[in-house]
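From the pipeline queue, job 12 of 40. The input is one protein chain; the requested action is below.

Action: predict structure.
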Amino acid sequence: MSKRILVTGVSGFIAKHVALQLLQKGYDVCGTLRALNKADQIKKSLSDAGGDISRLSFAAADLTKDDGWEEAARGCVGVMHVASPFPVAQPSNRNALIPAARGGVLRVLKAADKSARIVITSSMVAMMYRPNRPETFTVEEADWTDTSWKSLSAYIVSKTEAEKAAWQTAVDGGYKHRITTVNPGLVFGPALDDDIGASLDVIRLLMTGAYPAVPPVSYPVVDVRDVAQIHVNALENPETSGRRLIAASETLSLSDIAEILRQAFPDRAGKIPSRVLPAWLVRLLAVVDRNIATVLADLGSVPQADSDYVRALTGVNFRPARDAVIDAARSLERIKSI
């Protein structure tokens, strides 16, 4: 029987780790790319990390276009839809990213074989935002972000609407039992190459002196290797069908992350911020800086992840958040991104 798995957006930080663990377990992997000129670099990165690239192939497919998806998914017994649009700068229109995110997931669902298992990378941001929430609160599997809240960024809105569209399409089509979503928190851990993604860019900016101070925000943190393990288990384990798997355990503030980096990299401590901006100043700066405005919904909140059920379902033993932060930074040093 074929063990071919489609991994969308295989050049991404999480997707490469998913592909690596699939290859290490003997699966054949077809990774989608918008353009195939990244294929050789991905082969090298996965080979250097211990993946059997003789089992790796590529297909050209763009989330915003219909072409290529049916061919890419043909013969695949599983689909890992990891790709999602993330802008370099946040658009002023909070709905701007919805068409690409929702359209992408619907194209993948349409292309998937009628018997294929489908694992979709969503995010905890699709779960944890609602007005008037308490300062400290627990994020649970049934929670959904209220996208009517005006403080939300375009990325948060797009991830929420894309996941909702996936579940509704699966319910309407009668195949909810074949779908699992993985909802990670802030993903750290080692980069396999210099395509580091948005989450590791936070570490890079903290370590290079780009931030003179940090806002008072906190996020559930997870190691990318644990996220990849949960994806693979969701593919193999029928008990995860129809479930939303929260991938995170500990919560860290940006100030906590900066302190971890200062202790682990004392030679860089002078560049790593030690001050926390007051919330009122963040709100003021957000008026003139759209990227700062993306954290407004997080000011002063401390979300906790309810992920005990994910441990029980998948067997994942979440790595300490501190180790995920340090391993991310060490990998950035190795690839000379800092």
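Job complete. The two ends are 45 Å apart (CA to CA).
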